[in-house]
Amino acid sequence: MTEVYLDGTLIGETDDHKKLITELKTKRRKKILSTNMNVSFLQDKDEIHVNMGIGRVRRPLINVENGKSLLTKDLIKKIEEKELTWKDMQKKGIMEYIDAEEEENSYIALTEKELTKEHTHLELDPLLILGIATSTLPYPDKNRGDRLNYGARMAVQSVGIPIHNFLMRDDTTMNILINPQKTLISTQSMDAIHLNSHPTGQNIVVAIMPFYGYNIEDALIVNKSSLERGALKSIAYRTHTTSCRRYWGGQEDKIGLPEKGIKNYKSEDLYNKLDQSGIIQPETKVEEGDILVGKISPLRFLGIAKEIRMGIENFRDNSLHLEEIHDGFVEKIILTTNEEGNILLKITVRDTRIPEVGDKLATRHGQKGVIGLVVPEEDMPFTAEGITPDIIINSHAIPSRMTVGQILEILEGKAAALNGTHIDATAFKSSEEEPRKILADNGFQDDGKESLYNGITGEKMESKILIGICYYQRLYHIVSKKIHARAKGPVALLTKQPTAGRSKGGGLRLGGMEKDCFIAHGAPIVLQERFSSDSVKEHICTECGTIAVKDHIKNKVVCLNCKSEENIEVRLSYAFKLLLDEMKSMMIAASIKTTKD
Amino acid sequence: MINKEIKDKTFKLLKEKVELLDKTKKEKEEILKLAEKRYENMLYDSGEAIGVVAAQSVSEPATQTTLKSYHRESSGLNIIQGLPRVIEILDARKSPETPTMKIYLLPEQNNKNSAKKIASNIKETKLMHLMVEDSLDLANMCIEINMDAEKMKNLDIKTDDLIKNIKKKVRNIEVKMSDDHTMIVESKKAGTTVQDLQRTRTKVRDSHAKGIPDIDFCIIEKVNDDWVLQTLGSNLRKITKIEGVDSNRVSTNNIFEVYETFGIEAARQAIINEILNTLRAQGVDTDIRHLLLIADAMTSKGEIKPIGRYGLSGAKSSVLARSNFEETVKHLVDASIIGEKDELKGIVENIIIGKTAKVGSGLVELKMKD
């Protein structure tokens, strides 16, 4: 007896599970039962699960009967002529939606060729084994699987043109590529999601060869003139917001130039860029620490009565100032009110970013790299026709990663540029014969290779170099916003150790694992020096072993514990002193025994 | 540091081997000279942090093998490998997650048929594997078990032995055979409820019939002319007593069992072998001397101590070093109660207070004569 469950509750039993399932399925196809229903048979448990509930992931498949697809050629013609719609296909039982459970009982053919009588369904397109992001990559069937994953993940980080009305918007951050280009090598699913009207990169001339060691380890050589012509140039917009709040007692924030001498008033030149209203003007250059909007707020805590009566002392400067990494030009200012009716100010700062050494670029094949050198065009290698590559990548990037798709893209990109057409690179559909023919017809070698001449010496290179056009994306990791180093600088108040993080001018932590490395090398003196950032001199009482305190008035060092004046000066880490203090707070009195050398 | 005794012994052995070589006298001398130079180069220097180096040499490659764990080709047994297994050994768990044994056979029994026979003697058969069906007879308040006579015959199990085993496992019951293949289990106690009967049933089902307890699975493999039995489950004492088993070549991955059966020295060797084999299987080539040090440290107290909070790190003499590792407050409070003293001789203590640690170049000091 097979138990039958509807959405997880037992509703009955059947002797013939096959009959019941076929009946349910035929009725669903005839629309007698809801098309939202899915049936599955669990052989090991001997149960039938009928599911109607929400939250199941379902996907469309073409129905197959007696080894023949129900989507015939006539029907395909009708779809092309737009007589038949997606909904009609479902209504007529040509196609149905299957959930994960029912899929387990189905036998799905990937292509129409492999259909047999046992098959129950046919895949709409073999391309559908890939996700949306991955299917926009060219030649996914010719690359290794992990490269597709990397490629799809990096496309997400690319600077492109995600929306067209960015000038009217006030997003917190918005990165726009200045001259985005349609891909020469595109896929069918790119059209489906309109990716070509929101491109993510540019078609760039690439050569695969070494260049004096400056492109080792995935570094890229970039043509300086290409950058000057605007290749991969982008604009970053950042919007800073401030609003006037109302406080208890009728007080409120005021926008305006803060008067000199007010509490929290910064140096005078920082306010120079503001106009009389206290707001910065469009197209002003702003740098770190500059004030965008002058704002005066009431004091958080009222002082003594005398100070209150003096009026001006009741306010503090609460201006909106620019953080270190967000410098640029003021693009636009929006002055409006928020939901509570208070003044709301949005200031968009624009920063033009030209690629420089250290910026990150990537292809759609998971081949990423940072710019290693910007070379003047006259020093770049050139072809017999005088073409210089925009980017040179190292040949070692290819063999171990097996990104054959990239080689094909370079080759066929060249053919596409010569012919002025787009080439389709959808999964399982592309052929490389035609592009090779185009290349041969135009007088090129059909493998895309050419003789190159050294730009510095003018000598002809011995081996032929693959040169062609590849789609390159600029990723939003910008060195100038990340570079950081410090010798000395700010320390945290509590521990006297360096602060953490680039924005606070912090140090790079030498952690526990790194400490172990120094010990393993037998270099404890180096370690002591590196850890001495919080080193302090403290007086330790020789009587009781606690830390003695200097009395500046009497100019004496006294132990507060035993009143002894006998002590010894010792250099130790402030963190240890802090540990002793914290231990004291939990009623543990540790004492240090000192000896004289 | 040179241990003279070990060095002399090693070179005596080496000299004997070199004498056998087909070389001139001068060449032989040169070989020995070179060997001595290499030997001295390979010794660790005084002040070298061998513990840290050993820890790094094992743990750095171990992090790279994580993806390869829980995987084993060909054999049907899914035995834990890789990093989880290394952690299991270093934590000195009482029993491994997948205990397993490798059993070699005596030369006269080293063929497929006797291997099969021995395997059936090793694998534990329980009553539930021998029955067709069991049911509760609520009218007579007893359990009726329908036995599979054919299986019993194949495995050579007698009903009398079976009944004895059931009585050993479950107390206060009466077991009899009503006919050839129906067994009746009754409770001797008065006033048995259905719940009691149900409980007895699960116990009876689980009772031992044949083989060695704890051995759930046994497969036969051929490894270079030898028929090897590999088991899931480990019972060193009982398996060495089985006829046909080469008791000199039986091995288990349960280190505690080795310790209890053969003692601490064997356990030390077992730790070395197990870590080495796990690492080698993952393609990690760690020098065996690091493992020697780890095994020595784990077994130096006469019993197997884990590396961690309750083992070696928890047994450090310095309060600061202990509280630096785990459970800071507990160690500080306990130390304050008994008034512990920290000599500040270790590495961690000196780093905490900001002094040069006594390792490597920190060992030497310069003193001026007055």
Folded structure, characterized:
The complex is a heterodimer of chains A (597) and B (370). With 597 residues, chain A is of the alpha+beta class. Chain A has 4 domains: 2-124, no CATH class; 140-163 and 178-231 and 357-475, Dna-directed Rna Polymerase Ii 140kd Polypeptide, Chain: B, Domain 6 (Beta Barrel), CATH 2.40.270.10; 235-353, RNA polymerase II, Rpb2 subunit, wall domain (OB fold (Dihydrolipoamide Acetyltransferase, E2P)); 533-585, Alpha-Beta Complex (DCoH-like). Helix content of chain A is 19%, strand content 27%. The longest helix of chain A has 16 residues, at 404-419. Among the domains of chain B are: 4-42; 50-71 and 253-315, no CATH class; 125-210; 317-363, Orthogonal Bundle (DNA polymerase, domain 1). Chain B contains 16 helices and 10 strands. Chain B has helices at residues 4-19, 25-42, 50-64, 82-90, 112-122, 127-130, 149-154, 159-169, 194-205, 236-240, 255-262, 264-281, 288-299, 319-325, 328-338, 347-353; strands at residues 100-104, 125-126, 131-137, 142-147, 173-179, 182-187, 208-210, 217-223, 226-232, 251-252. In chain B, the strands form 3 sheets. Chain B has a 4-stranded antiparallel sheet. Chain B has a 4-stranded antiparallel sheet with strand order 3-4-6-5. In chain B, strand 8 and strand 9 form a beta hairpin. In chain B, helix 3 packs across helix 13 and helix 11 runs antiparallel to helix 12. Chain B is flat and about 105 Å long. Chains A and B meet through helix 12, helix 13, strand 35 and helix 14 of A and helix 3, helix 15 and helix 16 of B.
